[in-house]
UniProtKB/TrEMBL annotation, chains A, B:
Residues 51-394 form the Aminotransferase class I/classII large domain. It holds the Pfam family Aminotran_1_2. GO terms for molecular function: transaminase activity. Keywords: Aminotransferase, Pyridoxal phosphate, Transferase. The keyword Transferase applies. The lineage of its organism: Bacteria, Pseudomonadati, Pseudomonadota, Betaproteobacteria, Burkholderiales. Its EC number is 2.6.1.-. This is 2-aminoadipate transaminase. The keyword Transit peptide does not apply. SUPFAM superfamilies: PLP-dependent transferases. Its cofactor is pyridoxal 5'-phosphate. It comes from Caballeronia udeis. It is an enzyme of class 2 (transferase).
Length: 402, 402
């Protein structure tokens, strides 16, 4: 047999991608308690309402559901998403919005149509591993800027910008209940980032999957909404969101609000990438958003997350005391915790696997491969009782490790 | 106001993309008869069966429908698609198959994970404009090789390969009822391409959206099926297909069969691109393929295409006589025709728009911008009666042009 030598030049092999996939395999074992995933709470899905929306969408126009649709998205759904964005303070018109297959695809299209290999992209450090993977595969020159419990440090962004030899293409940030830190960017920092984006002319990309899942504290408007207060910044402000966490990921509906010239390029990316998102799924999303069930189901969803966040915070405090520091989440799905003192995190992770509990080691969320005593814990998918058990297991793993 | 200067370095602005989008706008006018689109016949959709499949998928496991799923695809659907591929002569295992959002996404992932800017990709000339757009945006060095009524000229491929300074990454071909030419690649040429792929070590990518829509002539096995006859070629053979033309595009389900190492890279691309295809849509596809309605509905679908292909062929022959040459289609959706003698194709197109009939000018399907007296006509979306009217309009436009 001739030897097979695939000459893979594209950088599509990342050890972290494999690590995440390994985690997913471990998490599939029902006796494992996983704080590692990014799945939303299945108990929050309004199954009855979604089923009704599917029936209504089909009744209204089965052929529209089953035929190709416009690449930008179903007209009615784009209007519904414009209205939803409006309720979040974002004024936009149809030319500035397109439907995507989740907000992951929204970010992917932005990257593809704006960033070529070697272009600089700024991110909060740590940040969402899925964004890091996309950036790595795009060949971006990623610069991570540290954040704190108030989100990415906008002054540090300014300092980095003053030192960069050429301007970055983009700054990517999850401003509400960040993945992984759970932190929310303050209004002051948002305004500052908008000023920097307008001055240095880069795309300020806010990914907002979790913002509607707030159970404590005050809502801060999206940067795209605040752009009206900062001259010229609306030309550089991009908003990504999704129904995956507040309705269901099963229909894979996200959206982009961007300046029309940027949105047009994303439409081009979508055209070559998958033609259009499922017209039936789009029609279901449209019916659901217009049925008022979205608004009426959301408080119950938020309560689920509140109860789980409380269970996790309380259990951790009780089990670890001062050995573990974290800010109590005000919304979203994640709690970011730091162990005090020296700790072999790989050993902790291995012991946790033995104890049948999973988490994301903090180092996975940094673009640089810094040592980190942090861990990302999702409280989304387990009941308060299971969360307590999981924390007990995690504590056993910790005791074995120190 | 500061002037806005988006520094777009990524090549996401193609005049042809805009031209196609302009066409789509024109085609939306209900008084226009369009031979330009790539939509399948809506009358072929098994609405009752699809609705039943959706109900069954929901009944079986609503939470699975509404939660994220594995990036590779729903396990049951992958098995169903392996069985469907098997019925087409393709033996593969689970590691070699992943679910995509249509075959457009399948090609996109193959490109992203294998081709970097400057890499050489061979295509038939003319070829599917959607593939050309994806290749252009990927920055590929595209080499078009002419075909005839038997598909791409495999001897010409061999000559090109012998002259290339470095080996290509890929050869892309629609082997059955090609878009745009309608031609089917002969078995001999398929074998030859497999030999060349194995010898020169490039991915031989067969895109097969239409192969099951044969209404005349003999089926030729996919190259991935014939690979068993050509040593080592199975390591270089990739098969893409979709349910969009034989079931419905509304659920956006396609798939890739590729060597495991290549498939793994496509899974990585899917992970950063959209996490997973809609689990509900996947469950619907699975139920539908297993319900036997797929097989029982297909003959009726094929009859629809046969009747429309006949109507188009007969009307063209009657209206244009020897002024227009074409091979009568044996399957698929497209008829490729060439005008005899000199003709101003832009003028013909403009006159056709005035007469409210649309087609794709052949030049859109060439990577080079050669002059072409050809046009691509899709007979998929209009009834035989409407096709006759459309041809009468096209003939009036022609008479005004010559």
């Amino acid at each position: 047999m001739t030897s097979i030598a695939y000459n893979f030049t594209a950088p599509y092999q990342t050890p972290r991608g494999s690590a995440i996939r390994e985690l997913a395999k471990l998490a599939a074992d029902p006796s494992v308690i996983s704080f590692a995933g990014g799945y939303p709470a299945a108990e929050s899905f309004d199954l009855h309402g979604l089923r009704q929306a599917a029936d209504d969408a089909w009744e209204a126009n089965p052929l529209q559901c089953m035929q190709y649709g416009a690449t930008e998205g179903l007209h009615e759904l784009r209007d519904a998403l414009l209205e939803l964005s409006e309720r979040r303070g974002i004024h936009a018109n149809t030319d500035e919005l397109l439907v995507t297959t989740g907000s992951q695809q929204a970010f992917d299209f932005l990257l593809r149509s704006n960033v070529v290999s070697g272009d600089t992209v700024l991110v909060e450090n740590p940040t969402y591993p899925g964004a890091l993977a996309a950036l790595r595969l795009a060949g971006a020159n990623v610069i991570g800027i540290d954040g704190d419990t108030n989100g990415i440090d906008a002054d540090a962004v300014e300092r980095v910008l003053s030192m960069l030899p050429s301007k970055p293409k983009m700054l990517y940030v999850v401003a509400n209940f960040a993945n992984p830190t759970g932190a929310t960017l303050t209004r002051e920092r948002r305004i500052k980032l908008l000023e920097l984006a307008a001055r240095h002319q880069f795309l300020l990309v806010e990914d907002d999957p979790y913002g509607a899942l707030r159970f404590a504290g005050e809502t801060v408007p999206p940067m795209r909404a605040l752009a009206s207060e900062v001259p010229s910044s609306e030309h550089w402000s991009v908003y990504l969101s999704t129904l995956s966490k507040v309705v269901t990921p099963g229909i894979r509906i996200g959206w982009i609000v961007a300046p029309a010239a940027v949105a047009r390029r994303c439409v081009m990316a979508k055209q070559v990438s998958d033609m259009c998102s499922s017209p039936w799924n789009q029609a279901i999303a449209n019916e659901y958003l217009r049925s008022s069930r979205f608004e009426s189901n959301l408080p119950g969803t938020i309560e689920i997350y509140r109860a789980r966040a409380n269970a996790l915070s309380d259990s951790l405090r009780q089990a670890f005391g001062d050995n573990l520091s974290f800010a109590k989440p005000e919304g979203g799905m994640f709690l970011w915790a730091n162990f005090q003192g020296k700790l072999d995190m790989q050993q902790l992770f291995d012991n946790a696997v033995t104890e049948q509990v999973l988490f994301i080691p903090g180092s996975q969320c940094y673009f640089d491969t810094r040592a980190s005593n942090s861990l990302r814990l999702s409280y989304a998918t387990s009941s308060p009782e299971v969360i307590q058990q999981g924390v007990a297991r995690l504590h056993r793993a910790y005791v074995k490790t120190v």
